[in-house]
Amino acid sequence: MNDTTSSDAPNEHATDIPPEYRQHRSLTGNIPYFTLPNNLIEAVVSEVGQERFDADLLEMEFALSDVCGDHTAQVGFWRGQPILYDLLRTNSLSEDPFLLENLPELIGRNAEEARDNLVELDSKLDWSIMIRRAYSGWLLTNPTFLGEQDQLLAEWGEEISQLGIPTVGPPLREGAVVPGAEQAQGRQAEFARAFVAFFTRWRLESMAAPLLPRPIGMYLPVTDLRVVLGHMRQGGTTFFLPDIYPVPSRDHLRTMLEDALRGPRIPGHLQDWSDIVRADNPARNHLMRWARIFQLQHFVRALVRRHPAAMRRRQTACNHAFATLFHVSSDTIERDIALIDDRLGRDWRAT
Q1: What dihedral do alpha carbons 174, 195, 75, 348 form, nearest 10°?
Q2: What are the pLDDT digits (tens) for 204-250?
Q3: Phi and psi at residue 207, to the nearest 5°
Q4: Which of its termini does the chain have fewer beta carbons within 10 Å around, N or C?
Q5: What distance in Å separates the CA atoms of residue 348 and residue 145, rounded to the nearest whole number?
Q6: What distance in Å separates the CA atoms of residue 57 and residue 55, rounded to the nearest whole number?
């Protein structure tokens, strides 16, 4: 509950850890506690068998899942604080009951108009969210990225335990460290610079927690060049079209963008991803698969880490639960798991 909420008037939309679990060992250490969607837990328990789970731990699992809802905005807890993240949501915005209930009053429209607004927003955001989710799926099955992330988190563990992962933007100018924090000195400045370099190298805006990257998004239009200057030097480009020009034809515009984005300068550590998203790659429909793999590996890690005994030799049963969540076949989930195994080895589930 929030401090302003009395104990006899619970907040339906509280984001905090319920008081009875705040001292639980799973929530007090340095390892993030990633919650699972309620419908996924129910499906897994049904497939695996409730008797295989620790009853108290399962009760806490459901309670913390209720706090985070469908993962539209919150996906767990870390160092006693909510983890806010938007790429693991399991419903569209137009299906979010909280938004549907409160948006009409917020925007001064009736319920039908508010829902129409959410449907339109979904249509504009879904493509970008899918790409960012797909790239995250590729990153989280990339041993080079995972190794560099682990090294960075280990090197700056003390600072992270005190301050969290820094929210650092791209450099505003040569020598600047973090927008609004140019006065940082000594080890604090090194801390910020290390994350600036890591985020820029891997085309990230930030990280919500370990294993939760936030890939750089699109800016259409770019209203403030300072937001993208750091990534322009290595991982993107600006595209200025004067308002006196007509919009180019679809094919011509695609060629212009492709040439501007992916000329000869793609660095080696991103070449594999660049090959996936090139316009001339006929297999770009695999992006939906990478997006699903991001969510799949995330939820599997959380399940195996917290319920290792229950999950032992139950992967096939779990595949049925995940197939229901993602509206695909169990064979599809099995192939996704096999791809992750091939890229990371079988030990990734418990890391």
Answers
A1: 140
A2: 988 999 999 999 876 555 555 555 555 555 555 666 665 556 666 67
A3: -135, 130
A4: C
A5: 14
A6: 6
Q: Three-state SS for 7?
A: coil
> What separation in angstroms does the CA of 264 have from each of 55, 68, 268, 345?
56, 43, 11, 32
Give the span between the Cα atoms of 52 and 317, in whole angstroms. Answer: 13
- Residue 38's nearest CA partner among 214, 299, 293, 294 is 299
What pTM was estimated for this model as a whole? 0.79
Domain boundaries along the sequence of the chain: 19-137+287-350, 146-257
Give CA–CA dist 45/39, Å, rounded. Answer: 10
Identify residue 4 by its one-letter amino acid code. Answer: T
Rounded to the nearest angstrom, the gap between the alpha carbon of residue 29 and the centroid of all alpha carbons in its chain is 21
Q: What is the pLDDT of residues 261-312, one digit of tens each?
A: 655 567 888 888 888 887 666 555 688 999 999 999 999 999 999 999 999 9
